[in-house]
Design brief:
By secondary structure, the chain is mostly beta strands. It has a single domain, classed as Lipocalin, CATH 2.40.128. Helices cover 8% and strands 62% of the residues. The chain is built from 1 helix and 14 strands, in the order αββββββββββββββ. The strands form 2 sheets. Strands 1-4-5-8-9-10-11-12-13-14 form a 10-stranded antiparallel beta barrel. Strands 6-7 form a two-stranded antiparallel sheet. A hairpin with a 4-residue loop joins strand 10 and strand 11.
């Protein structure tokens, strides 16, 4: 439902932009095919800020076996559910139809809270009433290679394959009462569909969706990632953009450092600057 509302919001914003884009179209002569740099420049670098709303539920099994209950790090441990982080990426068109792209962001959060209920994390159970310090660090590096099976001067559609290399670390510390921490680095392969459409010589629309349900090695689960961006390039090599990102990861891990599961959702707006040539 949350993801549906996000898409409806994006479509509403895009609808509101229609009039503005039409006015900006005077940079593109009537009847001419738009020629936007995003569709032809070999190199594009992106730097911006991302403000995701976070939902994090994780479980760390006791090393000796037994059951554990997932911990909501926002509601139970008090981590902020809205943050502002830096965001970076690049795209390389190494042939007319082939492209490679990458994106990266990292979110580090910490909080101190008096527990309203018992919390079991790994080999420790932190009792109701204990004051605990908690941290949850998350980073995602996305790398993908794509082929545009449909490509013209003003639009392209393609398919790609790649991976989200996700790193998670969670710690709960109650001082003399005990501390428990764990981390995992999970490479999660994905397939993706993407599209890029020039609306005028200055305005363009970019969309992408990654998805895969997988089970291999120490990992099983699924990942979904969507991106919608409106691009505005008033200068030959410099442009600006805004849009939305939604990353959903639900993974079970059977690793020496993390035996359990994690479900994370990051969803929110992004604003950025591009440099292309």
């Amino acid at each position: 439902m949350t993801q549906t509302r996000c898409w409806l919001t994006v479509l509403t914003v895009l609808g509101g932009l229609h009039v503005g884009i039409a006015v900006a179209a005077d940079a593109t002569p009537a009847g001419a095919i738009p020629d936007h740099p995003a569709l032809r420049d070999p190199f594009t670098f992106v730097l911006g800020v991302y403000s995701p709303k976070s939902t994090t539920t994780a479980l760390l099994q006791p090393s000796g076996g037994g059951s554990a209950v997932g911990v909501n790090f926002e509601d139970t441990l008090g981590l902020d559910d809205r943050n502002l982080v830096s965001f970076g990426g690049f795209r390389w068109r190494f042939t007319e139809r082939w492209r490679m792209e990458a994106e990266y962001f990292k979110l580090s959060r910490d909080a101190t809270r008096t527990l309203a209920a018992d919390v079991t994390w790994g080999d420790h159970t932190f009792a109701k009433g204990a004051t605990v310090d908690s941290t949850y660090d998350f980073s995602d590096f996305r790398l993908s290679a794509g082929y545009s099976f449909f490509k013209t001067r003003d639009k392209e559609l393609g398919i790609g394959f790649g991976a989200h290399v996700t790193k998670m670390r969670a710690d709960i510390n109650a001082g003399a009462l005990g501390e428990e921490g764990s981390d995992v680095l999970a490479p999660l392969p994905v397939a993706n569909l993407y599209g890029l459409f020039a609306l005028t010589n200055q305005w363009a629309l970019s969309v992408r969706a990654d998805w895969l349900s997988l089970s291999y090695g120490a990992y099983s689960g699924d990942i979904r990632d969507t991106a919608v961006d409106v691009l505005y390039q008033p200068f030959r090599n410099v442009g600006f953009g805004f849009g939305t990102r939604s990353l959903n990861i639900d993974v079970s891990v059977d690793d020496s450092n993390w035996h359990g599961s994690a479900k994370v959702v990051y969803q929110g707006p992004i604003a950025f600057m591009t440099v292309s040539f």
